[in-house]
Specification:
- This protein is an alpha+beta fold and about 140 residues long.
- The protein has one domain: Kinase associated domain 1, KA1 (TATA-Binding Protein, 2-Layer Sandwich), CATH 3.30.310.
- Helix content is about 40%, strand content about 35%.
- A hairpin with a 2-residue loop joins strand 4 (about 70-80) and strand 5.
Length: about 140
């Protein structure tokens, strides 16, 4: 009887540890898009067209995109209590989406990890930019 209780207790401890691990797995390494190439089928792309495609893509996903200089944009997304900010250097040949800052996303500078939802937002923005470029 005592052994059976110990087995049950051990089983519950294992289940509790597994649940805590699953709940705690909300961080992931920061996903950056570096020098995303432009589809070769897009002819005569200019830096201005690239900027407009990025801005339209951002707007479609509720990103606030600001021009901060030639070939440089900054994107900010406010979602519920979260904020993500990225640098977006671009040229006629490509663009990058690079982590800049965040609030309420559990950014860990020592490990380079952030809440996993951030990566999904960046991937969605990247896909939207590619779609806008193909529509040119």
């Amino acid at each position: 009887m005592v052994k059976q209780r110990q087995v049950k207790r051990f089983t519950w401890v294992l289940i509790a540890v597994a649940v805590l691990l699953l709940v705690g797995c909300k961080s992931a390494p920061i996903y950056n898009v570096s020098d995303a190439p432009v589809d070769a089928s897009i002819k005569n792309l200019t830096a201005e067209n690239m900027k407009k495609a990025i801005m339209r893509a951002g707007l479609s996903l509720n990103w606030q995109i600001k021009n901060v200089g030639p070939g440089k944009l900054v994107g900010t997304l406010f979602l519920r209590k979260h904020m993500a900010k990225i640098d977006i250097p671009y040229s006629k040949d490509g663009y990058s989406l690079l982590y800049r800052d965040s609030n309420q996303l559990n950014y860990k500078p020592d490990t380079g990890e952030i809440h996993k939802n951030y990566n999904g937002w960046i991937q969605n923005l990247d896909r939207a930019i590619q779609s806008q470029l193909l529509a040119l």
